[in-house]
Design goal:
The chain is mostly helical. The protein is built from five helices and two strands. Helix content is 81%, strand content 6%. The longest helix has 58 residues.
Length: 207
Amino acid sequence: MKFLINAVKTNKRALFLIVLMLVFYSHLLAGNNFYSDYADNLKINNTGMMVLGSWAIANIATGAYGWSNYRGEKMYFHQMNLFWNVVNFSIAGIAIYGNYTFDYMQLPYNELLSKMLKTERILLINAALDVGYMTTGFLMRNFASGPEKRQQLLKGYGSSIILQGAFLLVFDLVLYGVLKTHRQSFSDALSISFIPEIKGIALNIQF
């Protein structure tokens, strides 16, 4: 037993180097996994944007048809659907292009994590705005006054805004939930610290 204790004491430097190598290897492996998981995060985001883009295309097509073939409240309903989803389609296209051209391998882990958290916060803010959209649409429908044409416009636009707000609310909350779950699945952060002491080595790894 004494021989073993003496051997450990005389080889502290070797033990320290071994632990340091293990820490470095673990950190490198974790880093590779993080970049891989961030790539998966971007794929989830792109899938969400494709869903938004598909919704936009469907609404633009039906909106153009309804605008041309209906009159009164229905015409204004389809008109606003078309206007609204031109914006949605632009947002989806810009987001997908940005994600595909983003060179995330050049950024450190903490910046990538910040971007993921920022996306989640934006989705929550959007969800709050979606409730506001629906409320506005409800007020437009139920408090429309003035000439008949103006009432038809407000009711048609109001119905459209309620529909679009409801879709976006579900979309934003679902995408937020999926992205947050994915981020937490591989840990919010990887913290590796090693503290050399006078009589030994302490290794602290937190996930």
